[in-house]
Amino acid sequence: MLIGLVGKPSVGKSTFFKAATLAEVEIASYPFTTIKPNHGVGFVKIECIEKELNTKCNPNHGFCLQGQRFVPIDLMDVAGLVPGASEGKGLGNQFLDDLRQADAFIHIVDVSGETDAEGKSLEGKDYDVCDDVRFLEDELNKWYFNILAKVWKTFSRQLETGKEVNYARAIAKQFSGLGVKEEHVKAVFRKLEFKETISRWSDDQIMKFASFLRKESKPMIIAANKIDTEKGDENFKKVKKEFSDTMVIPCSADSELALREAAKHGLIDYVPGDIDFKIIKDLSEKQKEALDKIKNSVMENYGHTGVQEILNYAVFGLLKYLAIFPASANRLMDSKGRILPDCFLLPPGSTALDFAFFLHTDFGNNFIKAIDARTKRALGKEYTLKNRDALEIVTR
Q1: In the list 82, 130, 158, 351, which could disulfide-bond 90, CB 3.0-4.6 Å?
Q2: 340: domain CATH number?
Q3: Does residue 273 share a domain with residue 223?
């Protein structure tokens, strides 16, 4: 799974990326600081099952803090997109190509309203931040439309010759490089219900289809970043009202980065996504003031900095992935003595057999049953996984 960070230049994408990953990336207040995409590991947060099983986990991948398990995910920060990106403006084609493998997008929007469409400072001038959402969605839709338009004449010729065509399969194949699946295409056909024969669709209908397909195959959440600025809350509410069909979460990537860096250096006790933190070391007046500002202007107003909530929603809300623990009903540790060492993310609808194959091909091929580590109940191969399941796979 890969989550892509998108948005115009200078909105805080690289700050969000660094806050989520603590990776070393270049951060600056001028457009196109990021040219090549940054790849890193972020984490989604779930309640660990250690308390339920009366033990203390020792993660092999990710980590656990105060009973909260952090499961790794792949993040990618691409250079800022500008109006005209789908036509190549601002190296747009290159940046869109970088997004091909993303499963979902986090659109970082600068709700301070202090930068124009190309990320340049407005120096006090007014700017409608909703335009940032409109232009980016428009560019992504045109990206899909341009790919779809290439095959439309072919479809028409095939119809004229009377050749039977599986359109869902053919369209999915055309978009295979973007991770579009046949079920995505079928879902869009069901939603639109165009009465006209596909070969008679107008450009507007093709564009509408492309837009729905983009939303279906690469869903998006809006991160209303720089929420702690003068017009941040006002613009956040405006975006939320204008785009009511999209989840919009207030965010201060700067604040989250400061908290994670402080926790990393042992200055505070902070679990990402929590509503508060605890100072555990003597700080300078400047450090105290900075932390007080985060607490007063961000955490007390919104309950969080937004970064962890956005990552969680992208994975569990948009993509509806499930966190599954491999766990023996009688022995909770692996061969190296690590207790509950793993937690994996699987797509919705996955079964016990899918989980077995995910762990190892031999487990799938030799599957007998799964056992629920909590209840000791035996489960068949068709058992549909639930979030935070803890299963042992029994093989012959």
Answers
A1: 82
A2: 3.10.20.30
A3: yes
User: Cβ(50)–Cβ(338) under 8 Å?
Assistant: no
The pTM of this model reads 0.90
- The reply to whether 288 and 236 lie within a common domain is yes
CA angle at 119 for the pair 115 and 121, rounded to the nearest 5°: 45
pLDDT of residue 182: 93
Residue 351: other Cβ atoms inside 10 A: 17
d(CA 14, CA 282): 30
Question: Residues near 105 by Cβ (< 8 Å), separated by ≥ 6?
Answer: 3, 4, 5, 6, 99, 140, 218, 219, 220, 221
Residue ranges of alpha helices (H) inside 161-278 are 167-174, 182-192, 203-217, 232-242, 253-264
Q: Which of 296, 316, 336 is the last residue of a domain?
A: 316
What values do phi and psi take at 111, rounded to 5?
-85, 5
192 CB neighbour count, 10 Å cutoff: 13
User: Which residues in the chain belong to E strands, given as ranges?
Assistant: 2-6, 38-47, 63-65, 68-77, 104-110, 220-225, 248-250, 268-269, 278-279, 322-326, 344-346, 367-372, 378-379, 390-395
| 106-238-81 Cα angle (round to 5) | 35
> pLDDT for 78-113, tens place per residue?
877 777 756 655 544 566 777 888 999 999 999 999
Last residue of a domain, one of 180, 196, 217: 217
Residue 191, SS3? helix
Return the structure tokens found at 195: 């009465």
Residue 371 pLDDT class (50, 70, 90 cuts): very high
Contact 391, 327 (CB under 8 A): yes
Residue 47: strand pairing partners: 68
Same domain, 261 and 179: no
Tokens of 131: 């335009």
Residues near 357 by beta carbon (within 8 Å), at least 6 away in sequence: 363, 364
How far lies 190's CA from each of 63, 193, 213, 246, 349, in Å? 42, 6, 11, 20, 20
Domain of 145?
139-217
Instruction: Please state the domain count of the chain.
Output: 3
